[in-house]
Structures are given as structure tokens and as C-alpha cells.
């Protein structure tokens, strides 16, 4: 690093296991950019100071992760329409008009899905109704899918469906009757455990099954999907593609997705 090195990063809490610095630094290196991406561990009570610090220090870009994606909106000059509809910002840019918030999670989800299928006109079921679900549902509705939201708390699924224009909602137990061609798990079930949000027998053999959970990479849901003959798609790809879209937004360059995916793998081994 030198005095000219562009410094950017991610604010999150806790910062322990994030693979974002590895992915972004690999992208900067592959693209020959003099830039460095750092993980800033910012507890909720210091978020305002951190964002003000961004302005004061002239940091041009910051990613925002849990638990700050909604709270950060109150500290920005402008939030774009998409991030406002989703209700979360994961990308902040300091430009001529001040601090501007955007969301790349929904594009990340669509680009990940595009590795296996085009959601246009397909029956898609989103499991979960939290922050990740809002981005995924927004993306699927934009892409022209017929979307159902299933969640443990049905009231939350209903609210999300109404907010973002999903066609149906219900409890997780409705999966089998909906005969989905696409299933995306956005619940946290499976993260660090052997659990799955739905029974293996309810997964149709012709479906594409994407998991937002990426730790472990082979979740129980993805293993069950493969056993049923369905096509599994790991959460790694949603994470890599949302980071790639941040890179595109910040640099205006085509993101080196393969280098970012390799860095994701490498960071998981260390
Ligand atoms: N790959 C990526 O790029 C990416 C991006 C964002 C998030 N994620 C992952 O997605 C997951 C969800 O994140 P989030 O920000 O959306 O979290 P969140 O807002 O806290 O939502 C959690 C969701 O999981 C459900 N849930 C939790 N425990 C459950 C259980 N035991 N049984 C059934 N449902 C349960 C909740 O249902 P209730 O509403 O009933 O509580 C809710 O729908 C996390 O694992 C996160 O790491 C991945």
C-alpha cells in the first residue's frame, strides 16, 4: 500500500469470518488496481460515527453487512429506489451527491441463478422472509418469475409478499403442493449445522435448488436436492456475484468473477 492506494472495505459486526476482503482484494489485483479492501468491525452503536468517518476520510466506497443493512439507511444522503424497496443497503458510494446507498444482493442472486436457469415465467419458491429473502424476492419478481414466499412465521411471509409483489405466501409445509421449478433457501437453517428447512421428499427432482447459506458449502438441503435428482447451487455463488456487482459499481470495470470465486474458496481453506 502507498499514499495513493484507494482504501475501501466492509462494515459489519462481528467481523470474524468474512470472506469479502479476500474476494475484493483478489478482484483488485486481477484488474491491476491500486486498492485495498479492509474489514471494519463496527458495533451497532458506532455505525453513525463510522459512516461519518467515511465522509471525513474520503473513503469512496464501503460494503455494508449484518447487522447494519437497514440501520445504515438513516445515515446516508440518498438511497436508490431498489434498495429502498428491498429495505436494505449493502453498498455505499461517496460521490458528488454525497453518500449514496444501493443493494447488489438481488442482482447477485439473479446472476447466481443464471448459472443454472432463467427464472422468467417459472414457479419459484423462496424459503424465508428475512433480509436475504427480500432481496431474492425482489430479483425474482423483476425477472418475471411466479414467486411464492414460505416462512416459519407466516405473517412475515405475507408482509413480504405484499411489499414486493410475490404471488403467494404460506408456511414452509406448503412446498410440495406448489411443485416449484426453482427453490431458494434464504432461511438461516443449515448455517453451520446439518439441518434443512424442508424435508427431502418435498423437493421435486426437476428443480434448481439454490441455498443462500454458504457455510458449509454442501448444506443438507443441497445434498438432499442432489439425491432427489434436482440441480443444487451453493450460496457461494450469490455471495460472489453480489461482490462482483459491487466491484462493477465502484470501478466501472467488468468484474473478474473467477478470481473472486477462487479467493472465496481459498479463504475457506485458511
Ligand atoms: N449468499 C449470500 O450472498 C447471502 C446474502 C445474505 C444472506 N445470506 C444468508 O442467508 C441467511 C439468512 O440471512 P438474513 O439476513 O435473511 O437473516 P434474517 O433476516 O435473520 O432472516 C432469517 C430467516 O430464517 C428463518 N429461520 C431462522 N431460524 C429458523 C428455523 N429454525 N426454522 C425455520 N426458519 C428459520 C426466519 O424465519 P422467521 O421469520 O420465522 O423467524 C427468517 O425467515 C443467513 O444464513 C445468511 O448468511 C447469504
Quick summary:
The protein is built from 10 helices and 12 strands. It is α/β, with parallel strands linked by helices.
What does this structure look like?
This protein has 270 residues and is of the alpha/beta class. The protein folds into two domains: 6-103 and 238-269, Leucine Dehydrogenase, chain A, domain 1 (Rossmann fold, 3-Layer(aba) Sandwich), CATH 3.40.50; 107-234, 3-Layer(aba) Sandwich (Rossmann fold), CATH 3.40.50. 37% of the residues lie in helices and 20% in strands. The protein has ten helices and twelve strands. The protein has helices spanning 20-30, 47-57, 81-86, 105-113, 131-142, 154-164, 175-178, 220-227, 236-251, 257-269, and strands at residues 6-12, 35-41, 61-64, 78-79, 91-95, 98-102, 123-127, 146-150, 168-170, 182-185, 208-211, 231-233. Strands 2-1-3-5-6-4 form a six-stranded mixed sheet, sandwiched between helices. A six-stranded parallel sheet has the order 9-8-7-10-11-12, with helices on both faces. The longest helix has 16 residues, at 236-251. The radius of gyration is 18 Å and the shape is globular. The two termini are 23 Å apart. The mean pLDDT is 96. NADP nicotinamide-adenine-dinucleotide phosphate binds next to α4, α5 and α9.
Amino acid at each position: 500500500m502507498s499514499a495513493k492506494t484507494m482504501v475501501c472495505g466492509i462494515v459489519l459486526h462481528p467481523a470474524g469470518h468474512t470472506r469479502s476482503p479476500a474476494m475484493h482484494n483478489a478482484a483488485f489485483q486481477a484488474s491491476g488496481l491500486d486498492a485495498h479492501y479492509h474489514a471494519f468491525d463496527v458495533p451497532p452503536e458506532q455505525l453513525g460515527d463510522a459512516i461519518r468517518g467515511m465522509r471525513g476520510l474520503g473513503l469512496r466506497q464501503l460494503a455494508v453487512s449484518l447487522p447494519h443493512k437497514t440501520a445504515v439507511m438513516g445515515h446516508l444522503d440518498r438511497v436508490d429506489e431498489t434498495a429502498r424497496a428491498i429495505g436494505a443497503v449493502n453498498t455505499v458510494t461517496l460521490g458528488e451527491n454525497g453518500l449514496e446507498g444501493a443493494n447488489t444482493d438481488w442482482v447477485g442472486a439473479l446472476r447466481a441463478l443464471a448459472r443454472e436457469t432463467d427464472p422468467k415465467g417459472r414457479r419459484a419458491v423462496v424459503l424465508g422472509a428475512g433480509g436475504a429473502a427480500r432481496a431474492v424476492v425482489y430479483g425474482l419478481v423483476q425477472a418475471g418469475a411466479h414467486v411464492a414466499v414460505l416462512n416459519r412465521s407466516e405473517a412475515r411471509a405475507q408482509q413480504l409478499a405484499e411489499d414486493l409483489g410475490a404471488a403467494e405466501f404460506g408456511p414452509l409445509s406448503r412446498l410440495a403442493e406448489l411443485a416449484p421449478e426453482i427453490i431458494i433457501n434464504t432461511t438461516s437453517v443449515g448455517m453451520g449445522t446439518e439441518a434443512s428447512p424442508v424435508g427431502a421428499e418435498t423437493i421435486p427432482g426437476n428443480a434448481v435448488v439454490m441455498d443462500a447459506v454458504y457455510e458449509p458449502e454442501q448444506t443438507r438441503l443441497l445434498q438432499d436436492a442432489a439425491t432427489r435428482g434436482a440441480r443444487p447451487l451453493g450460496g457461494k455463488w450469490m455471495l460472489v456475484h453480489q461482490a462482483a456487482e459491487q466491484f462493477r459499481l465502484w470501478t466501472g470495470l467488468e468484474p473478474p468473477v473467477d478470481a473472486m470465486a477462487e479467493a472465496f474458496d481459498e479463504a475457506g481453506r485458511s
